[in-house]
Write a structure and sequence with these properties.
single chain; alpha+beta; FAD/NAD(P)-binding domain; six-stranded mixed β-sheet; 15 helices; 20% strand; binds flavin-adenine dinucleotide
């Protein structure tokens, strides 16, 4: 491929397709001709409603108005995920966004907390985390300089519709139609065009595959290959249903572990997204559907929807003149709400690597290496929840706690158990989260850093108490989540800059 990229074609109009269209048109629209093809008859997956804080930055990059976005998507705020019954039946913890306690130059806060715990002067680990305490009290307020880390719950269909309006304003042309054939250049195998069922051909210089699990371009046409992770993540199915809200939305997602599955609850302004993720080798579709319906609150708004998936990663996210974004690029189950984050990562990374003239293989290789690193680390973090558990009440949980895990994860678990350390690799996504989840799942380190012993008992007590008091004082000043949301959306509350 020797010419510069002018015509970009996005195949698919789900969350991935419209996020790609929004970013490309807003940030490079004046240099590109962007077309998006989607098929209403095929539709979108219709789930994907919990996010992590990186979405706040994506929206800022695009200049998206937060209040408008929340109004249009029935959105609410999210401060973390409450994991119920994951460590054991009846034992809960929250993985909150943000940092717990205060690290020092030599070691993380968990070392101080561990000694405090031994001495009987420390509370729960989460008591030293502002976001966790605010979530627990159902509170939310924008604090200056993102002093309170947050993400959103959103309605996926409305989000795609919102981004469609946004993208069309910046010149994206939408074509309705079903892609029947992906045409390749006979000499180099690059994609030349997409032939629709109407006979129309959409040609382009670069193609973004957002066709979801069908992966029409990256896999069906380019045969890039797939690395399966199902031996580490046994869940391969989900059933999802929406219900009417019966209470005010809480600022956190709920993840409730069941006998051989887990259930999500995502509170929007007027409805709740519910789903059960399960392993079909341990639970039938019928029983999963029954279990979900038995455990939702409020009237159902749609028929339960069954979704089958394969966990793993496309071997290359970028291949020839095609980039995979969203479900076409691979899938990790939604336990930590990371898929929308990975969509934005692929888009923003692609913009950073955007070829000046021709595509250089060295750039493609580096792009793929970075994507691989990101996904592998997130995969490890998700496996951690299944592997480190005291649950042994069902065959499913016994299998999970005994299964082999990737060497990279095994090393991280051993390090934490033996020394209390967690080291961030390169710029992997999760940092403080590792401590929160490892402790929450019941992995207690055998030692803490010796430096902590240089503090007197009095100093350590003061140090821990000071952090807890600061957290408590800040939480006391926050608004109730629902009250804040209403005030912010009506314009009655204006957040600090
Ligand atoms: P889709 O929504 O499937 O869109 C595919 C698009 O391609 C559609 O527009 C379709 O019409 C079009 N298309 C397909 N084939 C053709 C064709 N031949 N011709 C024309 N158009 C075509 N992510 C999160 O971040 N948080 C969550 O809480 C979360 N929960 C999830 C729960 C479950 C059970 C699952 C399975 C996923 C979840 N995800 C979550 C992932 C999230 O749903 C996806 O990452 C996100 O919706 C993006 O999907 P997509 O746009 O890639 O695919």
């Amino acid at each position: 491929m020797s010419e510069s990229i002018k015509k970009v074609v996005i195949a698919g109009g789900g969350t991935a397709g419209w996020m790609a269209a929004a970013a490309l048109s807003k940030l490079m629209g004046s240099q590109l001709e962007i077309t998006l093809v989607e098929s209403e008859s095929i539709g979108t997956i219709g789930v994907g409603e919990a996010t992590i804080p990186t979405l706040v930055f994506f929206h800022r990059l695009l200049g998206i108005d937060e209040a408008e976005f929340l109004r249009e998507t029935q959105g609410t705020y999210k401060l973390g995920i409450r994991f119920e019954n994951w460590r054991d039946v009846g034992k809960d913890y929250t993985h909150a966004f943000g940092v717990t306690g205060k690290d020092c130059w030599a070691c993380g806060f968990q070392h101080f907390w561990l000694r405090g715990r031994k001495m009987g002067i420390a509370g729960d680990f989460g008591e030293y985390c502002l976001e966790r305490r605010a979530a627990e009290e159902h509170k939310f307020t924008h604090l200056p300089k993102i002093g309170l880390n947050y993400a959103f719950h959103l309605d996926a269909s409305r989000y795609a519709a919102y981004l469609r309006k946004f993208s069309e304003k910046f010149g994206v042309k939408r074509v309705e139609g079903k892609i029947d054939l992906v045409q390749l250049h006979p000499e180099n195998g690059f994609i030349r065009g997409l032939k629709l069922d109407s006979g129309q051909v959409i040609d382009g210089d670069f193609f973004i595959d957002c066709t979801g699990m069908r992966a029409m371009l990256i896999e069906k046409a380019l045969h890039t290959g797939f690395e399966s992770w199902s031996h580490w993540l046994p869940c391969d199915s989900a059933v999802a249903v929406q219900t009417e809200a019966v209470e005010e939305p809480v600022p956190f997602t709920r993840s409730i572990a069941r006998e051989s599955a887990w259930q999500w609850r995502i509170p929007l302004q007027t409805r709740v997204g519910n789903g059960l993720v399960y392993a079909s080798s341990y639970q039938s579709d019928e029983s999963a559907c029954e279990q979900l319906l038995e455990n939702v609150e409020g009237n159902t708004l749609i028929e339960p929807r069954l979704i089958k998936f394969q966990t793993g990663r496309r071997r290359k996210q970028w291949h020839k003149n095609c980039l995979a974004v969203g479900l076409s690029s691979g899938f990790l189950e939604p336990l930590e709400s990371t898929s929308i984050h990975l969509i934005q990562q692929n888009i923003v990374r692609f913009l950073r690597f955007f070829p000046q003239s021709e595509i250089h293989q060295c750039e493609v290789d580096e792009f793929n290496r970075q994507c691989e690193f990101d996904m592998d680390r997130i995969r490890d973090f998700i496996i951690l929840h299944y592997k480190v558990t005291d649950r042994s009440d069902t065959e499913f949980w016994r299998h999970c706690s005994q299964m082999e895990v990737p060497d990279s994860l095994a090393a991280k678990i051993d390090m934490f158990r033996e020394t209390g350390h967690v080291f961030r690799e390169a710029n992997e996504l999760f940092v403080d989260s590792w401590q929160q989840v490892m402790l929450g799942q019941g992995l207690e380190p055998e030692r803490y850093h010796p430096l902590v012993d240089s503090m007197s008992e009095h100093e350590l007590t003061e140090f821990l108490q000071h952090i807890r008091t600061n957290v408590d004082n800040t939480v006391a000043k926050l608004h109730g989540h629902n009250e804040y949301l209403k005030g912010y959306l009506s314009g009655a509350i204006v957040p600090p800059r």
